[in-house]
Write a structure and sequence with these properties.
Layout (H helix, E strand, L loop, with lengths): L5 H8 L37 H14 L7 H14 L4 H8 L4 H8 L4 H16 L1
Helix pairs in contact: 3-4, 4-5
GO molecular function: DNA binding
GO biological process, one term: DNA recombination
Keywords: DNA recombination
Amino acid sequence: MPRPSPFRRHLRHAPRPQALPAPPEEPHPKARGRLTNTIGTPPTIGTPIEPGNLSTRWRVARKRAGLDWLRLHDLRHACASFLLASGASPRTVMKTLGHSQIGLTVNTYTHVLPDIERAAVDALAKRLLG
């Protein structure tokens, strides 16, 4: 009989995986489909967030924070701008936002970041001109 490899011997003595935790209990019937205290937290029953519920929670949180001027969609634009400013590729931003075409992302967001364009031109000039 062939001798088992050291790897197989190790596997024989390795600890066994732990059991998975028990699934959460069913939520209270009146709580189904409602958001929790955090904006954007999905319902516990695994259904999509109701747009009306999200909008209502956003308005309440926005008012409490004194940001009445801030729209929920403004957070989307801020996310894209921050990603681009931190060096993320336009393709990454496109996927994050769910755009179907890269052109939409580039045309919408790169014009607000002239510093990135300036840095790219400076880097090119440095390579070409030394």
